[in-house]
Design a protein that fits this description.
The chain contains 19 helices and 12 strands. The protein binds flavin-adenine dinucleotide (FAD). Flavin-adenine dinucleotide (FAD) binds next to strand 3, strand 5 and helix 12. Belongs to the acyl-CoA dehydrogenase family. InterPro entries: Acyl-CoA_dh-like_C_dom, Acyl-CoA_Oxase/DH_mid-dom, Acyl-CoA_Oxase/DH_mid-dom_sf, AcylCo_DH-like_C, AcylCo_DH/oxidase_C, AcylCoA_DH/ox_N, AcylCoA_DH/ox_N_sf, AcylCoA_DH/oxidase_NM_dom_sf.
Length: 601
Amino acid sequence: MTDTLINRRDLDFLLYDVMDTASLSERDRFSEHSRETFDAVIETADRMAREKFAPHNSEADKQEPRFVNGQVEMLPEVKEAFKAYAEAGFIAGRFDYELGGMQLPESVIAACNGFFTAANPGTAGYPFLTTAAADLIKVFGSDEQKAKYLPPMLDGRYTGTMALTEPHAGSSLSDIRTSASPTDDGHYLIKGAKIYISGGEQSISDNIVHLVLARIKGAPPGVKGISLFIVPKFLTDDRGGVTGRNGVALAGLIHKLGYRGTTSTALSFGDDAPCHGYLVGEPHQGLKYMFQMMNEARLGVGFGAAVIGYRGYLHSLEYAKERLQGRKPSESDPTKPPVPIIEHADVRRMLLAQKAYVEGGLALCLYGARLVDDQNSHPDATIREEAGKLLDLLTPIMKAWPSEYGTRANDLAIQVYGGAGYTREYPVEQCWRDNRLNPIHEGTNGIQALDLLGRKVWQDRSHGLQLLMQRMQVDLEAATTSRCQQWALSLSETLQRAVKVTQDLGAALQKESPDRVLANASCYLHLFGHICVAWMWLRQANQAEILLADAGYAEAERNFLEGKLQAARYFFHWELPTVAQDIVLLQNRDDTCLEMRAEWF
Ligand SMILES: Cc1cc2nc3c(=O)[nH]c(=O)nc-3n(C[C@H](O)[C@H](O)[C@H](O)COP(=O)(O)OP(=O)(O)OC[C@H]3O[C@@H](n4cnc5c(N)ncnc54)[C@H](O)[C@@H]3O)c2cc1C
């Protein structure tokens, strides 16, 4: 079983050759960094992920956390790995030096986190949630809240959660019912129930900081009446000393298909004891604040899905080189030795599809991380603004595409293993089960599709879409070899058709019921997802051609670059053409699904 989590040459290629991540060190914010410090931190992540996270991945899957005598029992290795991650400074990796952080670019910290997820997505969930919760408190919390919660969260004594979902309100957060009643001393009493809260109870940290969405009594209905509260598991004084247990309690652990190492909890607030909550920012702005965490989490979900897909791909690649079975169709002599299954074209198809999905998905996610860096630290204000608009437009795609296709890659990895893939003796079925969460949480992919077609594309008079087309144009024009130019042409033609369909859908939205126009939103998400990933493959192919022109490379490097070009070819020949179907359905505003009636099923 391979212990490679992400191919380091591939990551270097994406980070440095394609995305030019080393140049970030020229920015003020990252001036104390260099390619060497980026590489050193990535090396640490790779090693720590292999040594501390990977070894208990399968065991944590088999031994789900259990609720025993009021405590959550879990493997001790989870806590050890969490502690090692925190002590190495990764929770605070992207935070300012003044906060004890490493002030690393998002591109680098995302790459580091890729190793942890590839090694063990269940254990990685705890620190990732903690970073995201701390980030939200840093941006929207009061000075007092920051002083109280950030230091222990960033050094790993406290963990964080995001508590949005309620039993009756998942996709539709506007319907949440958890309430907040003001008290005389300025804080609130929280009452209600939340479900599926990841890391909502565990045995790895001294305290848990829940970020809870609730309605202040008398608030307006819908999303405009939702506020955000800090609800700690233990109440503390200003010096961090515990003053009592808060009234947030574990109502039960939820048992799941995958991601079993991360506890999934049902939480009750204020049932058995008063539950104290502390308002973050202004009343009724909670969903807006929470969107910062959700957007970050959505990019993280896409990234995680790509690397779990990647892990399955590497396992199946290794297996396909070792497993001997059958002979080529051209070999008629049954006494000849069997060949490794990688020699069969159909197995290569499954491996190439995985490679195209996971390396394309990873490129897309690293591009998203780069947009975060440009939005936060580019010296040119226009580029900062443009990066923000692109990020806004692309977030649903960066969440949904890798989660759809990373899982599909894991499905193909199982198929490459044959019967062995279906057993629990081999690792690929766990990859698939873990990855299967990603199209569901952080807003289902159906909700991402509605967000893209119902909102994001039209925002700011479609400026984001125009920016995206300009960025693509640069890479279309950069294609110089005949094969890259051919792929650039097919991307350009598909893009033009997508733009035309977008204009038609925009016009239809003015005249027709949105129910009909948005009925096929998932086709639109697929169309744009494939276009974006094709663009990522063109960027990789353009770069591979430049590097291949240098005849001085050793054979291994030439093989790597030829592999990139073949995977690009696969995407352009086998994948991009599949959007023709989406375009037809969207163009006709096909109403087959819309017109189907519940009673006809
Ligand atoms: C393992 C796990 C971990 C999670 N972690 C957290 C967490 O830490 N914090 C948290 O707050 N939540 C968490 N969640 C909850 C998760 O975000 C929700 O499950 C998700 O948002 C979907 O909500 P739901 O399950 O209620 O499904 P529903 O909203 O009931 O959706 C069911 C189906 O209907 C579709 N649908 C719903 N509404 C529409 C619509 N308007 N138009 C078209 N289709 C629609 C959906 O796409 C989906 O296919 C987690 C869930 C899981 C499974």
